[in-house]
Amino acid sequence: MAADPIHQFQITKLFTIGHIGGQEIAFTNSSAYMFLSVAVISVLMLGAGRQLVPGRFQSMAEISYEFVANTIRSTAGSEGMKFFPLVFSLFMFIAVSNLIGIIPYTFTVSSHLIVTVALALLVFFIVLFYGLYKNGLKFFKLFVPSGVPIYILPLVVFIEVISFFLKPVSHSVRLFANMLAGHIALKVFASFVGMLGALGVLGWAGAILPLGLTIALTALELLVAFLQAYVFTILTCIYLNDAIHPGH
């Protein structure tokens, strides 16, 4: 029988924390892997040290720091560095949780839309509130591109407003869909290996192709894990740049 590729995304209750308003508050496997991701990041950053000749942990921490810092400077300018803690936390959390999710029999936090929507809405409201706080009514220049003829300006403004409020949708769905689809494909090909391997010698020969595809997909998922964390991060920086420097 083929393995269920959807089973890996099921949220299961580990224990009950309490009840609020008749609703159960439970600690789930998703919560556990979020805590695990934070723990791994904490060990990496706190255990890095400050040696003159960096070791492995310190090198990884410094590379992560410089990568995110350069991303912010190249998209939002030096003023965007005030948001470094936010952007760095998002990048590390998404990257580490994605990498943990590639390990067999683990759980991928970002494969659930509720998680990616929460992260995207966090960025959206920070951009909205900071943009209004810093620029006041000038923030609305973001919706009025310069050089647009007056007779089509209302249509352009309408499109800009709609696209602004749809940013959290594209921001969250991109990460969720990529992780969900990749893990389903990986589980399907891995199940083929087990099914064919159970048929004997001829099955073993037939399992070579799906085994090779499984290995290739695993390598691809490693790349996607980093790539999706980077895409989410750079889009965050672009949106923050809109709040810092509204207008076109």
Automatic annotation (TrEMBL):
Per its UniProt record, what Pfam families does this chain match? ATP-synt_A (PF00119)
Q: Family membership, please give it.
A: Belongs to the ATPase A chain family.
What keywords tag this UniProt record?
Answer: ATP synthesis, Cell inner membrane, Cell membrane, CF(0), Hydrogen ion transport, Ion transport, Membrane, Transmembrane, Transmembrane helix, Transport
What is the protein's name according to its record?
ATP synthase subunit a
Q: Reply yes or no: does the keyword Cell membrane apply.
A: yes
Looking up NCBIfam families in the UniProt record yields: ATP_synt_6_or_A (TIGR01131), PRK05815.2-4 (NF004482)
Keyword Ion transport in record: yes
Cellular component terms, GO, for this chain's entry?
A: plasma membrane; proton-transporting ATP synthase complex
Cross-referenced InterPro entries, in alphabetical order? ATP_synth_F0_asu, ATP_synth_F0_asu_AS, ATP_synth_F0_asu_bact/mt, F0_ATP_A_sf
Q: What domain of life?
A: Bacteria
HAMAP family, per database record = ATP_synth_a_bact
Assign the protein's first listed, main location to one coarse class: membrane
The molecular function terms of the Gene Ontology recorded here are:
proton-transporting ATP synthase activity, rotational mechanism
Q: Where in the cell is it found?
A: Cell membrane; Membrane
Topological type in the membrane: Multi-pass membrane protein
Q: Lineage, please?
A: Bacteria, Pseudomonadati, Pseudomonadota, Alphaproteobacteria, Hyphomicrobiales
Q: Where are the transmembrane segments?
A: 32-53, 83-107, 113-133, 142-166, 186-210
State the protein's purpose.
Key component of the proton channel; it plays a direct role in the translocation of protons across the membrane.
